[in-house]
Fold:
Amino acid sequence: MNPSPGPQPAPPAASAEPQAEWTGADGSWTLRVAGAWQGHDAGLPAAPEGLRQGRVIVAAQELQSWDARFASSLWQRLSTLDRHQVTFELDSLPAGLQQILSLALPPAPDADGPAPPRPRRRYRPGWVTALGQRATAWWADGRLSLEFIGEVLLSFGRLLRGRSDLRAADLAWQVDQTGPRSVPIVSLVSMLIGIIVAYMGAAQLQRFGAQAYIAELVTVGVVREIAALMTGVILAGRVGAAFAAQLGSMRANEEIDALRTMGVDPVDHLVLPRVLAMLLVSPLLTAYAALVGVMVGGLVAVAIYGVAPAEYVFKSLRALTLPHVLIGLLKGTVYAVLVALAGCRQGLNAGRSAQAVGEATTAAVVQAIVWIVVAASLLTVVFQRLDW
Structure:
């Protein structure tokens, strides 16, 4: 005889369908949620149109189950309401869901304190503010340039006292890079400049029947001004950019920091050889550019305007006085030193990325040309005032 079976457990009740609805009006609203929301794709209904202020009660006594999707939908519906105008009562929600909402929803304002200001629109500075910011950046850049020039002067003083980290091999290598390797481009540009000066000057002098003065015009103009100016611009594009790229790459690769760690002054080891190399080769390059320009100008005068070769040479030598030569060489030297300073200054202060190195290279060329033009204007005015 089989024993009678004991009481069997009741089958689980079917999960109720998820339900959600808004009820109430005029200051008190209730969002009632019920049923099993776990795995349910449908979201909660949006807040009523008239809900702008008052109290919102979330009634979840009949909520059977929930998941992250339900929590996200509830947060979306409540977060659209202004916490400064609407208060929430979430006590009937499960503890875990209350914790999630307390972290996700913005904090309620302090009842005793003033309401925090609403976020303003993004401030766009006017032209006065933009001008002030630009002037501040220019001042900082100029101050950094002056500090760098001061460091170079101190390094030169250490060299004179025999306490510099400069190596003769580095200086010789920089002289080779800046001098002989710049001769081809200097020759080409000087030839073209000589042709332009001779042709345009002679075209104007021919109107008055004064072709005989072509020699004086070309010689004085090229030797005193144009050769030095064009040599400086050529060195800015070729040598100044190279200096900035080299030192900028070393800074990006932390090689300059390694030199400082080993107790080596980067200005003595990297900047001073480049500045001295430009100081040594610039008079030679300027003199060479002037010679090429005068010779090519003579070819134009002889071949096109019928000036006798002996007459051109005689008048060129007569017009070529010592002050003209010295002023031209001095200007070429000043321009070359400015190019070296601009390139090294931008390279040592470049950023630590490839884009920053490129920006430093561009800035070195621009800064060198600006410095050259300013120096040319000042020197020309000074020499004219001194009647040199």
Summary: The mean pLDDT is 84. The two ends are 139 Å apart (CA to CA). Residues 83 and 108 are 6 Å apart (CA to CA).
